[in-house]
């Protein structure tokens, strides 16, 4: 049924041939001490910090911060760029049109949104949906790393160039980063297109489907 849905969208099933670990990302000395989680960290503390955060100027224009949603013991952690208008209003990630597409693509791989954990690089909406500034990304990244440390996912799926480049600490474009297993603190990272971009680019939906299949294979191998 789901496959039919994807076929109707023009999505084909294939697995990228390249599957090499290209990059292990960890954090520069000094910075790591500030942003890596403390052993006393817990979900409630982290969530409360994000809700009240005033560490960058995005807090002045947001309606509310968007911590993320889903399973805090998820195998899959899915990371987008930043909340948009709908997300800012509802306090939940990926609830607009891009979110609908993401939900369908996840379902096609047999995953419900409630099974995975979905979040963003920055937790507050940038005004007019502009890209987050590097200072905002740098400030907010610590929250994401603490989420990763608490969830301990088996895979991180980076949606779009902001998520991919931030997580992997690189300027490489999506085209170069796709189809490879990267790593962030020992968690495999797979890169794919942002669903908002896929809504405009029919051809690349096929490639995104391939990326999801690729990520599924990595999780399966991990479970063996
Ligand atoms: N785009 C994103 O990157 N994240 C959201 O939560 C919504 C749209």
Structure description:
With 224 residues, the chain is an alpha/beta fold. 45% of the residues lie in helices and 14% in strands. The chain has helices at 2-8, 31-35, 43-52, 58-61, 85-90, 97-108, 134-151, 160-168, 174-177, 195-198, 202-223; strands at 21-25, 69-70, 76-80, 117-120, 155-159, 181-184, 187-192. Strands 1-6-7-5-3-4-2 form a seven-stranded mixed sheet, with helices on both faces. Helix 1 (2-8) packs across helix 6 (97-108). The two termini are 27 Å apart. Mean pLDDT is 88; it is low at 1-20 and 27-34. The structure holds uracil (URA). Uracil (URA) binds at residues 80-84, 87, 93-94, 98, 120, 196. Uracil is lined by residues 80-84, 87, 93-94, 98, 120, 196.
User: Quick check: average pLDDT?
Assistant: 88
Distance between the termini: 27 Å
Question: For the report, how would you describe the main beta sheet?
Answer: 7 strands, mixed
The count of helical stretches stands at: 11
Query: What ions, cofactors and ligands are bound?
Result: uracil
What can be said about this structure in brief?
By secondary structure, the chain is of the alpha/beta class. The protein is built from 11 helices and 7 strands. The structure holds uracil.
Task: List descriptors.
alpha/beta, binds uracil, 224 residues, 7 strands, disordered N terminus, 7-stranded mixed sheet, Uracil-DNA Glycosylase, subunit E, single chain, globular
Set down the secondary structure blueprint.
Blueprint: H1 2-8, E1 21-25, H2 31-35, H3 43-52, H4 58-61, E2 69-70, E3 76-80, H5 85-90, H6 97-108, E4 117-120, H7 134-151, E5 155-159, H8 160-168, H9 174-177, E6 181-184, E7 187-192, H10 195-198, H11 202-223
Parallel strand pairs: 1-6, 3-4, 3-5, 5-7
Antiparallel strand pairs: 2-4, 6-7
Helix pairs in contact: 1-6
This protein binds uracil.
Uracil binds near residues 81, 82, 83, 98 and 196.
């Amino acid at each position: 049924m789901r496959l039919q849905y994807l076929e109707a969208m023009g999505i084909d099933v294939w697995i990228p041939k390249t599957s090499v670990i290209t990059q292990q990302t960890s954090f520069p000395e000094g910075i790591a001490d500030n942003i890596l989680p403390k052993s006393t960290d817990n979900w409630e503390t982290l969530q409360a910090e994000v809700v009240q955060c005033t560490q960058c100027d995005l807090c002045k224009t947001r309606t509310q911060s968007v911590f993320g949603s889903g399973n805090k013991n998820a195998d899959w952690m899915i990371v987008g760029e930043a909340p948009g208008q709908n997300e800012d209003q509802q306090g939940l990630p990926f609830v607009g049109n891009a979110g609908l597409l993401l939900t369908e693509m996840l379902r096609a791989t047999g995953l419900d949104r409630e099974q995975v954990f979905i979040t963003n690089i920055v937790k507050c909406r940038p005004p007019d949906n502009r890209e987050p500034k590097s200072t905002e990304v740098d400030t907010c990244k610590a929250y994401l790393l603490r989420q990763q440390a608490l969830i301990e996912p088996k895979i991180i799926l980076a949606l779009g160039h902001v998520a991919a480049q931030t997580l992997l600490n690189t300027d490489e474009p999506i085209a170069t980063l796709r189809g490879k297993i990267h790593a962030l603190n020992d968690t495999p990272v797979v890169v794919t297109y942002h669903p908002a971009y896929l809504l405009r680019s029919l051809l690349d939906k096929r490639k995104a489907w391939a990326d999801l299949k690729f990520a599924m294979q990595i999780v399966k191998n991990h479970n063996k």
